[in-house]
Write a structure and sequence with these properties.
This protein is of the alpha/beta class and about 250 residues long. Helices cover about 40% and strands about 15% of the residues. It has one domain: Undecaprenyl pyrophosphate synthetase (3-Layer(aba) Sandwich). Helix 4 links the parallel strand 3 and strand 4. It binds 3-methylbut-3-enyl trihydrogen diphosphate (2 copies) and magnesium ion. One 3-methylbut-3-enyl trihydrogen diphosphate (IPE) binds next to strand 2.
């Protein structure tokens, strides 16, 4: 059974294959521009890269894959791009959900879902209901998600659930269950494609001790080999969680 584990409260076990990978899929627009195609063509190819990634991650035994599909700041884009992205998200959910279910994948959509429109809201509810008992990979897609939004909604939900709590009494363990990723272990590996080296308001709370990996590869070009390279880089890291190298990682001799 999954349990949220806090890297600041205990030292998580670090396996060879990251248990949880969080990914910012960036570079669709540039991929399209390089080919003189409209930006939406890049987003479409990006969706195909997601399918490949889910297959590779499943094969490797990754337990949680969390993808940033649309940030709370992406509403600032031109209205036609936003609307095409929402349309693409609808058709991806419609077309992929049975296949994901057959593959025993548990699908979760996180973010402020109130602004997504009725059709998308229904599809999300159906996807959750259909796949909630699946025991394979947990695939979380963040849509209209922002890390600051998440922390604030968790704090508000906590205060609603525990009106008796006074200022100064709230602990990290009180808050965690109310965060969107409350049931998942924190990401071991964060990957961002497209060359930018920033978090862009993704999982601010959960990335506290995550290993960060940035690649120039544009998202539509990200394939099984790219994932292997990211995992290889992860496997070279010394995850100290505050300890010294001797404490955590000295080879036993
Ligand atoms: C990421 O690709 C997809 C979304 C943010 C929805 P971009 O659309 O940001 O691609 P670039 O950064 O313009 O190349
Ligand atoms: C981050 O990509 C969000 C997603 C991939 C969904 P952006 O391309 O929007 O990030 P910034 O705004 O350039 O940092
Ligand atoms: Mg971008």
């Amino acid at each position: 059974m999954a349990r949220a584990q806090s890297s600041t409260l205990d030292i998580p076990e670090a396996g060879k294959i990251p248990r949880h990978i969080a990914l910012i899929m960036d570079g669709n627009g540039r991929w399209a521009r390089q080919r003189l195609l409209p930006r939406i063509a890049g987003h479409r190819r990006g969706s195909e890269a997601v399918r490949t990634l889910v297959e590779s991650a499943t094969r490797l035994g990754v337990e949680y894959l969390t993808l940033f599909a649309f940030s709370s700041e992406n509403w600032r884009r031109p209205a036609d791009e936003v609307s095409m992205l929402m349309q693409l998200f609808i058709s991806n959910l419609e077309n992929e959900i049975s296949r994901l279910h057959r593959a025993n994948i548990r699908v979760r959509i996180i973010g402020d879902l109130t602004r997504l429109g009725a059709r998308l809201e229904t599809l999300i509810t159906e996807a959750h209901a259909l796949t909630s008992d699946n025991t394979g990979l947990t695939l979380t897609v963040a849509v209209n998600y922002g890390g600051r939004w998440d922390i604030l909604q968790a704090m508000n939900a906590l205060l609603r659930a525990h009106p008796e709590k006074a200022a100064g009494e709230i602990t990290e363990s009180d808050l965690t269950p109310f965060l969107s990723m409350g049931e998942a272990p924190e990401p071991d590996l964060f990957i961002r494609t497209g060359g930018e080296q920033r978090i862009s308001n993704f999982l601010l709370w959960q990335l506290a001790y995550t290993e960060l990996y940035f690649t120039e590869t544009l998202w539509p070009d990200f394939n099984a080999e790219s994932l292997n390279e990211a995992i290889h880089s992860y496997q070279q890291r010394e995850r100290r969680f505050g300890r010294t190298s001797e404490q955590c990682c000295a080879p036993d001799s």
